[in-house]
Design goal:
The chain has helices at about 15-25, 40-55, 85-100, 115-120, 130-135, 170-175, 175-190, 215-230, 250-255, 270-280, 315-329, and strands at about 5-10, 35-40, 65-70, 105-110, 140-150, 155-160, 200, 235-240, 265, 285-290, 295-300. The chain is α/β, with parallel strands linked by helices. The two termini are about 20 Å apart. This is 4-hydroxythreonine-4-phosphate dehydrogenase.
Length: about 325
């Protein structure tokens, strides 16, 4: 039987990407997919050898999965990324995307990269999502984080209206069209799991503006927009804008197994959404790029340069990213 192929880009080779890939593939060895890792064959073998010497047993041997070799220029020192490792992670992502676009692979999983090293290598992007949008020719992709509670399998879904921009630019980026588009994208994703989702929108200002006392954006355009969107989608239970400091309380209770929480959250800026997601589901959440012609997932952590040589990186989020790509891709 031929199983679907999943492209897995190595990420920054000086980080924990290669380590968590080898650990995740060992744990998922009997799953019904074929991994295709895009990265340096020599570095993956060296990582395998390094981890074995440290006494780590549950690793997938690079000889046992397909590798599209991307040689690295210069020496890799674990924990010390440089422009060469940044260029390697950029090249791996590009080749992995091409493999999916050509139909060789069904979906894409990306290990973490260092944005500042991309910049030092001459690639000015705020993240992998933005590079992917350029490669596939779409005006923009949506960043959504999803995770299943180990207590009751309730799924936490949080989409971001804005992503990697300075906080001073958030209000300039937020528009009625953007919010409407992100809500519809969130709805489409959540409908994979429930036909009539319960969606929640976080406010922008403290206490969601508190009747114009702490900000006017909610009253001037966000509330009217949500009212109109609700009329167009009467089957959806829509709440918001809610005070950001209490918006995710229901998610916390649901994650602990106390009840069923909302099916999806819309956060208006990066840290507003990622703080609750990582507090509840760090190591279990998956970054999903929506709006591309294929499914892309990624672990919800960074390169881990500080622990890259120690062999202690947990592969839970990488495992979840691969499983999500397999199940939804």
């Amino acid at each position: 039987m031929t199983y679907p192929k999943i492209a897995i880009s190595m990420g920054d080779p000086a980080g924990i990407g290669p380590e968590v890939i080898l650990k995740a593939l060992a744990k998922l060895e009997n799953s019904r997919f074929q991994p295709v890792v895009i990265g340096s064959r020599a570095h993956l073998k060296e990582t395998y050898k390094h981890l074995k010497i440290k006494g780590i047993k549950n690793l997938q041997d690079p000889e046992r999965f397909e590798i599209h070799d991307f040689p690295i220029t210069g020496k890799v020192i674990l924990g010390r990324g440089n422009p060469s490792t940044g260029a390697a992670s950029f090249g791996c992502l590009t080749i992995a995307t091409e493999l999916v676009l050509k139909g060789y692979c069904n979906s894409l999983v990306t290990a973490p990269i260092a944005k500042h090293l991309w910049l030092e290598a001459g690639h000015r992007y705020s993240g992998q999502t933005e590079r992917l949008a350029e490669l596939v020719g779409v005006p923009g992709a949506s960043m959504l984080f999803t995770a299943k509670s180990p207590k009751n399998h309730w799924r936490l879904n949080t989409i971001l209206a804005t992503t990697h921009i300075p906080i001073s630019q958030i209000c300039k980026q937020l528009t009625e069209q953007l919010i409407s588009t992100k809500l519809s994208t969130l709805l489409s994703f959540c409908r994979q799991f429930t036909p009539k989702p319960h969606l929640v929108v976080a406010g922008l200002n403290p206490h969601a503006g508190e009747l114009n006392q702490l900000g006017k954006e909610e009253h001037e355009w966000l509330i009217p927009l949500l009212d109109q969107w609700q009329q167009e989608h009467p089957e959806v239970k829509l709440e918001g804008p809610l005070a950001p400091d209490t918006c995710w309380l229901g998610a916390g209770q649901a994650w602990a197994g106390e009840n069923k929480g909302p099916d999806g959250y819309l956060a208006l800026y990066h840290d507003q959404g990622l703080i609750p997601v990582k507090l509840l589901a760090f190591d279990m959440a998956v970054n999903v790029s929506l709006g591309l012609p294929f499914l892309r997932t990624s672990p919800d952590h960074g390169t881990g340069f500080g622990i890259a040589s120690e062999g202690i990186a947990r592969s839970t989020s990488m495992e979840a990213a691969i499983i999500t790509a397999h199940e939804l891709g």
